[in-house]
Amino acid sequence: MVAAGWAVRYNKGVPRETQQGKGKQPGQNKRAGPVEGDIMMKKITRRSFLSICGAAAAAAALTACGGAASSTAASSAAASASSTAALSGNVATGGSTSMKNVIAALTEGFAEIEPDVTISYDPTGSGAGITGAADKTLDIGLSSRALKADETGVTGTIVALDGIAIIVNKDSKVEDLTVDQLKQMFTGEITNWSEAGGDDGEIVLVGREAGSGTRDGFESIVDVKDSCKYAQELTATGAVISAVEANPLAIGYASLSAVGDTVKAVTVGGVECSEETVKDGSYEVQRPFVFVTNDSVTLSAQAQAFFDFAASTDAADLIRTAGAVPVNE
User: Fold this and answer.
1) Which parts of the chain have pLDDT scores under 50?
2) What is the pLDDT of residues 61-108, one digit of tens each?
3) Contact 169, 263 (CB under 8 A)
4) Contact 218/253 with Cβ under 8 angstroms?
């Protein structure tokens, strides 16, 4: 499952995409012995420097002191050096496609702290992200909806909030819709734009596929669960935006973090979809961005470090830059 996604590896904040599974071959970095000419030196990071200092302290203690005392000092210094060792390895994440920008931003920020850790991301939808955490194929599942009562054995932690923007074509005259109007439109009770303040024309409903967290969030909030009369059901947020952009009679929904200037986001009940209105709760169509973990599994050191970073105040600006609303500041 994870192999189908992509992995991003950063060095000094510069992204480099690689196919997951391709990496250093065994023995690739083994020292080959003295060679005349250029000598390749491994970059010494801050943590590597601390480790070297710790090892030096251990050696000094062993030389200066004899017997058990020197052994104890060396062991203590070695333990200290080990505790500052840089993390490495992979953290497998996957699920919500709407969280793509947030995960990319968090990954880049985390690389500044732990450059030897690779974060892989498989954009398969919220349902698959929760399942991946439950069946242990993912370290961290990603969901753009709250967990359901029957999704047990996992825990959800909200790392950000996301407004679901209601989008129409840029040429549409419609500027504002109520939640009740949205309900009537998506269930087929209102079928013509003239009934909602627009020009005469049949409303074209564009939505996400079954299992999408964005769809589940929209339908649950607007109370149209499993009763929408979609003309198109698309498998990605970007596809919904493109469909609405191309059709002057279309209406759809998309994550606030994904909406640009190619479509128009209407206000809902007179309230625009923005960070401020999502955070203060005045914008009605909103949902959480959730990290999902398995209750029976202890995260690896690198996965726990990434989890802690994403949920910390240090990640607030990164989350905001990605278009979502941080919950920890």
Assistant:
1) 1-53, 56-71, 73-83
2) 444 444 444 445 444 444 444 445 689 999 999 999 889 989 999 999
3) yes
4) yes
The CA distance from 229 to 300, in Å, is 44
**pTM for the model:** 0.62
Residue 124 has what pLDDT? 93
Give the closest residue to 208 by CA, choosing from 245, 159, 273, 164.
164
Residue 297 is predicted with a pLDDT of: 96
C-alpha torsion 267→269→273→275, nearest 10: 150
CB 158 within 8 A of CB 289: yes
CA end-to-end span of the chain, whole Å?
A: 34
**pLDDT for the residue 275:** 85
